[in-house]
Amino acid sequence: MKYDFTSIMDRHGKDATAIDGLGSMPGFTPDLPKEGYDAIPMWVADMNFPTVPTIPEAIIERAKSTAYGYFQPTDEYFDSIIKWHETRNDVKGLTKECIGYENGVLAVLSLH
Fold first, then answer.
1. DSSP 8-state symbol, 6
2. Which of 13, 37, 67, 80 is the most buried (most CB within 10 A)?
3. Residue 29 has what DSSP assignment?
4. What local confidence, expressed as pLDDT, does residue 43 receive?
5. Residues 6+ apart with CB under 8 A from 24
6. Maximum distance among all alpha carbons in the chain?
7. pLDDT at residue 48, as a whole number
8. CA dist 45 → 16, 23, 30, 73 (Å)
9. Contact at 8 Å (CB) between 31 and 23?
10. pLDDT in tens, 82-107
């Protein structure tokens, strides 16, 4: 899939901590840049480019459901993960038994 990762998205005023939060949370956000310098947000979780259109489309489609909550992963769920790893990472022989699933952070943390 080709996608434009070069267009610049203006994130000012859109709840982006790496942009609007600079200098506002000592110890968490970087200081404001010195006079004459631009802020270059390079945090791992930042996306300063629009996501591919299929992602918001899938989120919107799922949000149309009136039932939210936990689910039991299906074979399709595991097959998608296995296929992704085969295609993206050239992983062979991955099975659904090798894939962990948890419904929340606390459940995962209690396993370790």
1. -
2. 80
3. S
4. 67
5. none
6. 55
7. 73
8. 10, 18, 15, 26
9. yes
10. 999 999 999 999 999 999 887 777 77
Provide DSSP, 45-91: T---SPPPTHHHHHHHHHHT-S--S--PPPHHHHHHHHHHHHHHH--
Whether 7 and 14 have beta carbons less than 8 Å apart is answered as no
Nearest to 34, CA basis, from 22, 20, 26: 22
pTM tops 0.70, yes or no: no
How far apart are alpha carbons 112 and 82 in whole angstroms? Answer: 24
Q: Give the Cα separation of 18 and 30 in Å (integer).
A: 8
The list of the chain residues with pLDDT below 50 reads none
Tokens of 54: 């299929």
Residue 82 burial (CB count, 10 A): 19
Amino acid sitting at position 96: K
Contacts of 3 (CB under 8 A, 6+ apart): 52
